[in-house]
Amino acid sequence: MTDSDNIIFDTASRIFDDLSTAEVINEAEAGTWPEALWQAISESGLNLTWVPEENGGIGATLLDGFAVLKAAGGAALPVPLAETLFAGWLLAQAGLQVNGETATVASGELTLADGKLNGSVQGVPYARNAKQIVALVETAGKVQVVQVAAEQCDIAEQTNLAGEPADTVSFNAVAVEQTGEPGEGFNGENVEAMGALIRCVQAAGALSTALELTIEYSMERVQFGRAIGKFQAIQHSIAAFAGDVAAMNAAADAAAEAVARAPSIDHEAWIEIATAKTRLEEAVNNGAAIAHQVHGAMGFTYEHSLHHVTRRLWSWRDEFGSDVVWARRLGEEVLSWGADELWPRITTVTDAR
Questions:
Q1: Residues 6+ apart with CB under 8 A from 149
Q2: CATH code assigned to 102-185
Q3: Which of 43, 185, 264, 298 is the most buried (most CB within 10 A)?
Q4: Integer angstrom CA distances of residue 330 from 1, 9, 166, 311, 325
Q5: HSE-CB for 104 with a 13 A CA cutoff
C-alpha cells in the first residue's frame, strides 16, 4: 500500500477497533443493528470512498477503498460497508448519483421492462439492512445499472456461515429509482470480478487478524511449563500460516493495484483477480485450520474473537465463484498464451505508478 493507503487504513482500523468489538458483532448476529458503528463510518465518509465527487462521493482512489475493505475484513465488521462501497462503485460506473445510505448489490438473472425490475436473487448480503439495492441488468445486448428501494422488494431473511444476512430478494415489478448505462464493454463479468476481488481483500485482512490472534495466544497459553509458542511443532505451523497470509495479501494487493490502474476491469486486471481468487481457498483452508488447532476449544467459544474472522473467511471463499471455477478460467487463459509467452508473462514487472 502507498502512504495514502496506509493513512486511510490506519484511520479505518481505529474506528473499527473501537466500535466493532466482539460484543457488538455478537449482538449484530442476534439482530441488533450497530447504529454507533455505522454512524461513525458515515461521518468519516468511508462509505463513499469509491464514489467521485461529481457523483456525491469524497473523490478518494480505488486503492483507498481497498485499504478500507482490508481493515473492515480484519475487524469482522458486522455492517454492509463492503456492499455499500460495491454498490456506489457500480452506480458511479453508470454516472449515477450516490447518497451513501446502506446499500447492497444483487447479482442474478433479472429483467427490466417499463421501468420495473423483475426476478429473484438468493444470497444477497445485508439486503434486510439496506436502503437501496443495485443491480446490473443485461437485455438484448444492452447493459443497465439500476437502483431500487429495498423496502419495495420482498426479502426472505437468511444467513450465511458467518451469521451475516444473506437474504433472498424478490423483485416483483419494483419501480426503478434511477438507471444508467455503464461504459462500453462493461458487463456482468466485471461485476463478478469486482465482487470476487472485494472478498479477497476482506479475506486478506481477516487472515492477518487471525494470524495475530494465533501468535498472541500461542505466547499466552502455557502447557508443560512453557508457552506453547515455544514448541517447534507450533512454530512450524504458525510459520506456514504466516506464509499463506503473506501470499494472500500479496495476491489481493496486486489485483487491487491492477484494477486501480485501469478505468474499469481490463483483461490484465481480470487475470490478477483470478489469481487472487484461486489462491484464496488454500489460504483460508490452511490458515483457519492452523488458527483453530493452536487455539483449541478456546477459538470456538462465543466470547472469543477468532471465530468472527474464520467464519467469515469460510463464507467469503465461496462467494462470486469457487476456487475451482476461477482456477479453470485462469488455466484456460494461461494455456492460450502458448509456450513462448508463458515465462515472459508470469515474470513481467508492472510499474505500480
A1: 131, 132, 133, 174, 175, 177
A2: 2.40.110.10
A3: 264
A4: 25, 30, 28, 27, 9
A5: 24
Identify the architecture of domain 188-347 in CATH. Answer: Up-down Bundle (1.20)
Whole-angstrom distance, CA of residue 19 vs CA of residue 128: 21
Helix (H/G/I), strand (E/B), else coil: 165: strand
Helices 339-347 & 323-337, crossing angle to 10 degrees?
Answer: 120
With contact defined as beta carbons under 8 Å apart, do 195 and 320 qualify?
yes
- Phi/psi class of residue 119: alpha, beta or left (left: φ > 0; alpha: ψ in -120 to 50)? left
- Indicate the pTM of the whole model: 0.93
Question: HEC profile for 244-255?
Answer: HHHHHHHHHHHH
- Sorted by sequence, the CB contacts under 8 Å of residue 98 that are 6+ apart come out as 48, 51, 55, 56, 57, 87, 88, 91, 92
